[in-house]
UniProtKB/TrEMBL annotation:
The keyword Signal applies. This is Outer membrane protein TolC. Residues 1-22 form the signal peptide. Residues 179-206 form a coiled coil.
Amino acid sequence: MKLPFLMALLMAVAVLLPPTLAAQNSVLDMAEAEERALARDAGLDELRARVEATRDSAVAQSALPDPEITVGLQNLPVDSFNLNEDRMSSLMIGARQRFPAGESRTLSRERGMRAAEALEAEVSAREREVLRQVRRAWVAWAYTRQQLMLAREESADFEALVEVTRSRYRSGLGSQRDLSRSRLELAAVEERILTLESEQAAARAELARWVGSLASGTEPGQADLPMPKSLTVMNERLLEHPSLQAEAHRLKAAETEVDLARQSYRPEWMMEGSYGHRRASDMDGGRASDMASLMVGFSLPLFTRDRQDRVLSASRSEAQAVHYRRMDQIHVLQGELESEYARYQRRLELADLYESSLLAEAAENLELEFSAYRADRGDFRDVIRARVDELDYRLRLLNVQQQIDESRIELDYLAGESR
């Protein structure tokens, strides 16, 4: 009669408890961690500000130079400084406007816009890098937590094994050597727990660096990693990597710089107009007429060997350098993609080996050795060895699964779809 009453009491208490006590720990999904990291990354804000600055600079560079205004005295006698004495003396005001050579303004704007597009691609590249880093930190945090939970469970089992050997030793069925060995292995598991706690703390700190401080008790939630496509598809997508797109825009900007350098072989133009007010009298006694002037000037790019030719040659070399840099970057990324894809395939095979045979065989071997030991037909060292092997295989499987997720992260960074 007491058991049903006790169960009813526990159920009533569970209903009356506030919801926060039923779920004390908060959960951080990988997708939420990604959004938080992207929202607080100062590097992205810097790049976006540089994009705006480069666009504004491109517009400014394509504008006409400011007109120049001149005001002064012309042909003033130095012996009297009297404007009324000489008919050539005048008060003058003028305006001058310069016009850059050829299509320099249009090309300057195009060059600046190409540079802004390269920075926009860098924003996308930075987003990919942030996602890669926060995903790796999240995965390390999640898997070290699983490994730590497993090690703690195994520690409890080793404690039970120590009790078994102690009981057998007290009853005369075991030896002091077996008891000492069981304590040693328990200490080794506790040492592993301390190592895993240190690794988990480091992974948690790395994740907090990207997403902000994590509340005490926060646990990893769901992970949403895209599955890799075939190597052929990923090689095609690799060319769309934002860093390569940034280099492509820089190459176009460099080619525009070559066109801009060619404009220096064309003359720059200048137009100037002035108006002079005269206060002296003419020969008939009337006030001398005011004077107006209009002039057009242009430069003569005759000596081009050490200026225009050098600038054009330098701009061509710079464009070639950008081209070679982009080709080298393509080769590097292709090598990384192929290497990571090969590692990903081998890790999948290794995980399948653990799950299909090694774990089951290790568990079966442990059961056989422990049964033989309890029946006084086996050696305690074989039991300990089998128990340690079973724990090692389970931890190795978690490590391989973590490596698989890390490969998926790297492959998505290299050849994933842009956000």
